[in-house]
Design goal:
By secondary structure, the protein is mostly helical. The chain has two domains: 1-57, no CATH class; 59-88. Helix content is 62%, strand content 0%. The protein is built from four helices and no strands. α2 packs antiparallel against α3 and α3 (41-57) packs across α4 (61-84). The longest helix has 24 residues, at 61-84. It is extended, with a radius of gyration of 22 Å. The termini are far apart. 0% of the residues are buried. Pfam families: DUF3135. InterPro entries: DUF3135 (IPR021482). This is DUF3135 domain-containing protein.
Length: 112
């Protein structure tokens, strides 16, 4: 497995070659996922996919950091709930409304 470069090396990559830093992030993440148990790999891949979507939605590096911090705090809160009040994770209520499509009597012409 690759060793994480020093902070100074990562900083230099971020400043001079952000694409190489992104490649390193993905490669190292894949190595970690591949080294996990087979039962954990799908969960880790799903988490990685979510992280990638969060990163892609950022407008600039500072925005990405803020979004990732928000996500980390959300996950930390969920973890805290799992430890301190686990039943709260399964207590959900919802109102389900069945929607019926409007029945058309005849044909509809669409112009365009």
């Amino acid at each position: 497995m690759k060793t994480l470069p020093s902070f100074d090396e990562l900083k230099a990559l971020a400043e001079n070659d952000p694409q190489a830093l992104e490649v390193l992030r993905i490669e190292m993440s894949e190595e970690i996922i591949d080294s996990a148990s087979e039962s954990m790999q799908p969960k880790l891949r799903a988490q990685m996919s979510h992280i990638n979507r969060v990163i892609a939605s950022g407008k600039n590096p500072n925005h990405v950091n803020a979004l990732l911090m928000k996500e980390l705090m959300r996950q930390f809160d969920r973890f805290s709930t799992a430890i301190n009040n686990p039943q709260a994770l399964t207590e959900r209520s919802a109102t389900v409304t069945t929607l019926h499509p409007k029945r058309n009597e005849g044909t509809v012409a669409i112009e365009g």
